[in-house]
Design goal:
Layout lengths: L1 H40 L5 H13 L2 H5 L2 H19 L1
Helix pairs in contact: 1-2
């Protein structure tokens, strides 16, 4: 039982680190794309406001929600492996 708790804690820490890194990387890439779009199209007005609005739109996007798969997929695989190794 202690091994399962240890696996869960270590797994949660590792998955959290991966989630944070992936989330920051994805947000940085989106910011770069918004800044490149601003420069390419030669827009007028406040560039920072445009980028912030784009990032707010990104926060509600499907891509942002798919990053939660970092938690869901590995946990599902581990649960399935434990089930099939022990009960099947």
């Amino acid at each position: 039982m202690f091994a399962l708790v240890r696996l869960s804690v270590v797994g949660f820490v590792v998955l959290t680190i991966v989630y944070i890194c992936l989330s920051l990387y994805s947000r940085a890439k989106r910011r770069d794309k918004l800044e490149a779009e601003w420069d390419r199209e030669g827009m007028s007005g406040d560039r920072d406001a445009f980028v912030e609005q784009g990032l707010q739109d990104y926060d509600g996007s499907l891509r942002r929600k798919l990053i939660w798969g970092v938690y869901i997929i590995p946990v599902t695989i581990v649960i399935a492996l434990i089930y099939f190794m022990n009960f099947h």
